[in-house]
Design brief:
The chain has 122 residues and is α+β, with helices and mostly antiparallel strands. Helices cover 46% and strands 22% of the residues. Strand 1 and strand 2 (18-21) form a beta hairpin.
Length: 122
């Protein structure tokens, strides 16, 4: 981000918005966050902080999307870690049922980025 970040932002005369990017075009970007936390906890604990990242990415590159995944399966062998009882079962179920859906969402996100890139090149 820093090579294309202006430390002397200008105000866009048409929109009145502050422009902090040195880019002369929009570059579609995305962030995919994987977390071991349940969705409710993630929303309370850190989703707001992660949205700040989205704000800066969009301010610099012009377009961004964010995808969150929750309760991800973190280890191949949970017995090697000090985890609460039942965590592996919950995560395994999440992996088996939700992970394919999350993969599809990520794939669709990628397709949208390609379409946006084509749209911005015209």
């Amino acid at each position: 981000m820093f090579p294309v970040l202006s430390y002397n932002p200008k105000i866009n005369e048409e929109t009145g918005e502050l422009e902090s990017s040195l880019l002369d075009r929009t570059v579609p970007t995305a962030m995919i966050y994987t977390t071991g936390a349940p969705e409710e906890m993630a929303a309370q604990e850190f989703k707001h902080a992660l949205e700040v990242n989205r704000y800066f990415l969009e301010a610099i590159y012009g377009y961004t999307e964010t995808l969150y995944t929750y309760q991800t399966y973190q280890f191949t062998d949970y017995s090697k870690y000090d985890m609460m009882e039942g965590v592996e079962e919950v995560r395994r179920k999440q992996r088996d049922e939700q992970f394919p859906k999350d993969l599809k969402k990520a794939f669709e996100l990628g397709k949208r980025l390609v379409e946006k890139a084509k749209e911005f090149q015209q």
